[in-house]
Amino acid sequence: MAASGALSALRLLARCRPPLCACTRSNSNRAAIGHLQRQRYGRLYPMLLVSTDGSTVRLRYGEPKRILMMPLDSNTLPEAERKARLRRQFPSKPKAKEEETFEGIDLDTYKKFWKK
Question: Which uninterrupted H or E stretch holds 45?
Fold first, then answer.
């Protein structure tokens, strides 16, 4: 009982005394010489991290993104899958199409549509 009374007396005494140093505002809007003293993104955003084996982990990230995928190491893949991935990543150039020629068309059948 005496200990709790002494503790409450100390709390009361601490409230009544003025602070020893001047009060400073230490929030994100405190300005320095060149810039504001805050991070680029002040909070952490929920994000889903997808590993190379397909497992997912929910974590907090500094930038607002939904999904972050880890890069896949192509040296660990089988040869056939690695070639298939390369073909999808770098598709071949489209083949040139042959131009239509009008040699096989009979122009007399379309003569009625021409203006005179």
Answer: strand 45-50
Regions of the chain short of the pLDDT cut 70:
1-41, 116
First to last CA, the chain: 118
Q: Give the span between the Cα atoms of 55 and 51, in whole angstroms.
A: 5
Tell me the DSSP string of 46-115: EEEEE-TTS-EEEEEESS--SEEEPPP-GGGS-HHHHHHHHHHHSPPPPPPPPPP-STTS-GGGGGGGS-
Q: Do residues 49 and 70 make contact, with C-beta atoms less than 8 angstroms apart?
A: yes
CB neighbourhood size of 11 (10 A): 10
Q: Which residues pair with 68 in a beta bridge?
A: 49
Distance CA 25, CA 23 (A): 7
Residues with Cβ within 8 Å of 24's Cβ and at least 6 positions away in sequence, in order, are: 30
pTM strictly above 0.85: no
For residue 31, list its beta bridge partners.
36
